[in-house]
Design a protein that fits this description.
By secondary structure, the chain is α/β, with parallel strands linked by helices. Helix content is 41%, strand content 26%. It has helices at 3-13, 18-25, 29-43, 59-86, 105-116, 129-138, 199-210, 224-232, 273-285; strands at 48-51, 54-57, 91-98, 120-127, 143-147, 155-168, 180-181, 190-194, 216-221, 238-241, 249-252, 258-266. Strands 3, 4, 5, 6, 7, 10, 11 and 12 form an 8-stranded mixed beta sheet that branches. Strands 1-2 form a two-stranded antiparallel sheet. A two-stranded parallel ribbon has the order 8-9. Helix 1 packs across helix 3, helix 1 (3-13) crosses helix 4 (59-86) and helix 2 (18-25) crosses helix 3.
Length: 286
């Protein structure tokens, strides 16, 4: 059983269709199906069951998929460590981060790190908090930059900074001419929020509760820039990280409107050398 076939198995196990996986691997669908059947023959159990056009893992398939993930992770980590041993400034740093950090923090630390290690490459992924934790636990990234401690015993987290949040209001809003506001003054306003599962949503709800009210949901989205645009269009207000924006942004005075930004990694797992150096660089930068 070769590693290429295990990677194909892993893609299908993750939910990709046989058609998609075969096209990506430049194989015919019958060739991919035969490869998957060979895996089942070697394992001695049915690993998939068909559900419409998609193959779903059987209980045996779920068990095998966990071990495949561990084998491929160890192999990839070994290749990376050998590459870094041959050339300490080369290699790949798999990193995932919050969407909102892609405009300032991540470009800053990646650029300054590559100034010292010009051969370093990065595999970058963006998610909300739940997606970041899932990537880290799955071993597809070495480090995540997120808001708040995930609070899991399997993850180590260290704060980098406190990022202020501002109340963004439409340009013609009754509060638009001010520079400061009590969050309680916005209690009657519709709030533009990220969907549940995003840390900024939890932070907004907690701060509103501290100010004595539950925010009325005017709209839910998955991108902070979408929320910012809807505020500018006059559809509501939002607590957002402070950046350049057409919408007026007011400093909040009655609650500590800010969020933790930190870096996290798997507890007890020795990072590859280049990722470890990048972690040190990020911590030193903030």
């Amino acid at each position: 059983m070769d590693l290429a076939v295990l990677r194909l198995f892993q893609q299908v196990a993750a939910g990709a269709t046989v058609t998609e996986t075969a096209a990506q691997a430049r194989l015919t669908q019958p060739a991919l199906s035969r490869a998957l059947r060979r895996v089942e023959h070697e394992v001695g159990a049915d690993l998939f069951q068909r559900a419409g056009r998609v193959l779903r893992l059987t209980p045996a398939g779920h068990v095998f998929a966990r071990h495949v993930a561990a084998v491929l992770d160890r192999y990839d980590q070994g290749v990376r460590e050998v590459t870094e041993l041959v050339d300490p400034d080369a290699g790949v740093v798999p990193l995932a981060f919050l969407h909102t950090l892609g405009t300032w923090l991540v470009p800053n630390v990646v650029s300054s790190f590559r100034g010292r290690h010009p051969g370093a490459r990065f595999e970058l992924r963006q998610h909300g908090e739940e997606g970041l934790v899932a990537e880290l636990l799955a071993g597809t990234v070495d480090l995540i930059i997120t808001s708040g401690d995930p609070g899991l015993p399997t993850i180590d987290w260290q704060r980098l900074l406190l990022e202020p949040l501002r109340l963004a209001v439409p340009p013609d809003h009754r509060l638009a001419g001010r520079t400061e506001v009590r969050l309680a003054e916005a209690a009657a306003e519709p709030f533009i929020l990220l969907r549940p599962g995003y840390g900024l949503r939890d932070t907004t709800e907690a701060l509103c509760a501290e100010a004595g009210f539950t925010p009325k949901v005017g709209f839910e989205g998955e991108e902070v820039e979408t929320l910012r645009g809807l505020v500018t269009a006059g559809l509501g207000v939002a607590l957002l990280p402070g950046t350049n924006s057409p919408a007026p942004q007011l400093r909040v005075t009655d609650v500590a409107a800010e969020r933790d930004i930190g870096v996290a990694w798997l507890a007890g797992r020795a990072l590859p050398a280049l990722s470890d150096r990048f972690r040190t660089h990020v911590l030193a930068s903030y």
